[in-house]
Amino acid sequence: MIERIKKNLTIPNAMTAFRIVLIVPLVRFLLKENYIAAGVILLLSALSDMFDGMIARKFHQVTNLGKLLDPIADKLTLMAVAVCVNVIYPEIRMFTFVLLTKEILMLCGGALLLKLHIRPPAARWWGKTATVVFYTSIITLVLLKAIWNYTNATLTVALFALTTAFMMFSLGMYVFLFAELIRKRSHNEKTD
């Protein structure tokens, strides 16, 4: 038991946990309209998301806990930010609904895989790209609001339409991947 705990006490896992902890002040600053602080926290969150996996792979600190926590941190952050930005920019309600639905479907898909005793796969390039587009869009909107108090409905809708397109592409790719994992497991059970 102690050995398992030691194995999971890694810098990448600490970075992922830090990203989860950042959600509370991020939401608070967004809703209090302290956009500079929110922008800094978003940037820290995005950087920790970008570097935790790189560090884990480079220093051989990839753990099952990290593989589980990283997508959870991504989804919690995305959902919290999407809801907050929806309050700030009501014109994106439809996109927020789509993004939240996508994240809930991804969580359900991961839970289904776990129920079937299939380890959920690590993030793929399409999921990482969708996350980068999401962070870029949100950071752009928050910084424009923080620095110039700039709000433009057309830009907001365009950024969220782009983000939603990448998120839906990512969802489609993961649906195919999850279905393939389930099909392989079913095939292996039949041949055993």
Distinctive features:
mainly alpha, 8 helices, 192 residues, globular
Question: Could you walk me through the main structural features you see in this protein, from its secondary elements to its overall organization?
Answer:
This protein is mainly α and 192 residues long. Helix content is 84%, strand content 0%. The radius of gyration is 18 Å and the shape is globular. The protein starts with a helix and ends with a helix. The mean pLDDT is 87.
What is Rg? 18 Å
Integer average pLDDT:
87
Name the overall outline.
globular
How many DSSP E strands? 0
The helix content, as a percent range, equals over 70%
Question: What distance separates the N and C termini?
Answer: 32 Å
Write the element-wise H/E pattern from the N-terminal end onward: HHHHHHHH
Low-confidence spans: none
Q: What does the main sheet amount to?
A: none
